[in-house]
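User: Modeling request: complex.
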Amino acid sequence: MEKVIPKWVFVVDLNSCVGCNACMAACAQENQTPYWSNKWRTKVEQLEIGEFPEAKRVFFPHLCMQCQNTPCYYACPTGATYKTEEGIVLVNHERCIGCEACVIACPYGARYPYESDDVDECEKLYGEEARHTTPHIDKCTWCYHRLKEGLEPACVETCPTNCRMFGDLNVDSYVSRLVLEGKAIPLSPQLGTEPKVFYVTSKETPVGVVSHHLNEPPYKQTI
Amino acid sequence: MDGLTMYFGNYQHFVHQAAWGWMIAVYLFLGGLGGSMGALSSYFYLIRKEKHPLLFGLSTLLGIGLVNFGGIFLLIHMLKPWFAFFVWTHPTSWIFWGASFIMIYTIAGAVWGLSLISSSINFPFSQKLKTLNPSLVDKLGYISGIMGLLTAVYTGLLLSTAPAITLWSNPGLPVLFMVSALSTATAYFMLVSPSHIAHENEKLDIALLALEIIIISAFFNYLFISSAAGKYIISKMLSSIGFMGFFVILGLITPFILEIYAIKKHSKSLVILASILVLMGGFLLRFYILKFGYYTYPW
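Assistant: Request completed. Predicted assembly structure:
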């Protein structure tokens, strides 16, 4: 029987994010990200818009978009950035020299340097369990190690409002229908990066580029 | 939150890139200057037949030294510089090509430069270099010149691979960096060359500075009409004393006027002043291009 490679997608429903930041905590715990240096693989932006009495606070979670056309992959001179057969973009910590060309290339701010001080702190905190043992550029992997075990990413599993959803386009599900029916849309599609994170927009969330594309036909899926 | 602004009812978030700062500006400046010194040395010696082997040999060697010295700044910036040799493993990256241009330029330029100065200066291998086939030496000179020029162009291509940074991600930047790099190299030759070669460089630099002014004006036009991010960047540029005062006026327009005046008056002191301003402008251009590298985030 032919092996079916999953077409994983990530959907964020902006209507249900309450800004609890549980996703950030779960990610930091799962992936040993350097929260002590305020560096995160996933982040929830908090925007305050309008003025009293119309003032609102809205939340915008973002993470690595796992782009199909991957600027960070092309910018990496050492091949430390690579893609799995499922299209997940990973970083080989040993191979990375930390030139930050990928940090510059990423249009979504998904990468940050895991510096020597962070490595020291990681080893101090996690001891023999530490998984960041050399300086490198770090990024969200959609918890690839969990996906391989059939688990969801830590942030998805933790999200109390189901704002974060994960699925496979090969399988008919609420998540795949949101994407294939165009109800969830990618960020900055004009850049041609073909992100695999899709957003269900909300009237409350002032996402300029997203709102430009609300009335466009469903996103063409090439993954 | 830096730079939250609103255009046409939509919010966009402009964030200054913090990854590459002044050290990368030094790398880009010295890469452009050093590469162009080699390119112009080959041009004057091999094409224009200006027979000043000591001047052009030493200039190429100095150019190689500056490019490699600049490379140290990139290495210092890296998290693991001791594994820098890995950059020759992934050809989709401009750093792969830049490192290759620099390596070939260093090897070809060093042999060519040392061959040129071997007739005037004695050093351990000078006798052996004198016996090299002149045709081979010339070929190395052409390779050195082309690789020097490509090194200068590469410095712009390196920045153009950031799709979300409006100021960098456009085809004009490599052209701007190449013209500016050649201009700084002509400024160097204006400082150190005998009068007739300095004079040739003055004329060349006036053309290059005119071209640079046109390209900078075209960039202003592009930023005004391109996007919300472009408008945001141009507002930052126009309100920056460093960019407008020190780069545009002192580092670009003033030397352009001074060099035209110096040609008419045959004034060496004006040429020296103009050269220093061009070199300063060359560095400031790269510094401010990095400084005004704003991401446009869709949130």
